[in-house]
Amino acid sequence: MTTGNEIIARFERFCPQSLAESWDHVGLQVGNPDQPVHKLMTTLDVRPEVVQEAIDRHVDFIFAHHPIMFHPAKDLDTRNPQNQMYADLLSHHITVYAAHTNLDAASGGMNDWLAEKLGLSDTRPLLNRGETLGEDGSQGMGRVGMLKQAMSYDEFAQYCLKVFNLQGLRLIKPLTEHPVQRVAILGGSGGQFWPAAVHLGADAYVTGDVSYHVAHDMKANNLLVADVGHHVEAISIKGLADLLTRFMKEDAWDFEIVQTQINTDTYQYIVK
Description:
Helix content is 32%, strand content 22%. The protein is built from nine helices and eleven strands. Helix 8 links the parallel strand 9 (204-208) and strand 10.
């Protein structure tokens, strides 16, 4: 019988915790990894509705991208939905493990999955660990690469909508249009890293959670930006399931891998 510790050890040979940013909280979140695993579920977020899904599906190991414990709990008052979620996980003996910025930086991880979705070739990291400019190598935050053919601003926006299956996005257009072919991408909240995209010659930058004043700076520096939202990282649900399925075959594990069916995107797009 495969234990949580065996799964974690194999995964961390591919994606060590040392790749994570210093502020991050990756690895074991809740539970006992010594327990055998019968059914594992991949998810982007661990929210109360996802935990209830895990309980209903008899899952005993949740493998998430986003950590659930960025900050220590001040109390364990279960009238707080977050605390009740912890109680539900513990009472149902569900272990939770998270790979966050280490998965973002890993070769063959989150940002490679996103770059592949965009069809980028000749990719390199946008940043190294510690938020410095990326060097030629396979590991580091974000990716920069080339589209097969150049696009206009509007064509690129429609392309992002299509490949990421989005309801909408926010487009930050420079005043002067230029062809888009060299593209930088960083999943999640990457607005602050736009100077790296400019430095590495990107015509466009794809990320999420861009703030108002940062958007003005991007526009002033002639950088097209597609804010595709944070939830685009839901690509990790399938990405992690596929990766763990590969490890299962290699290591002859014997448990079931399922993907969450819950959409944890909190935003809805309302058009006039």
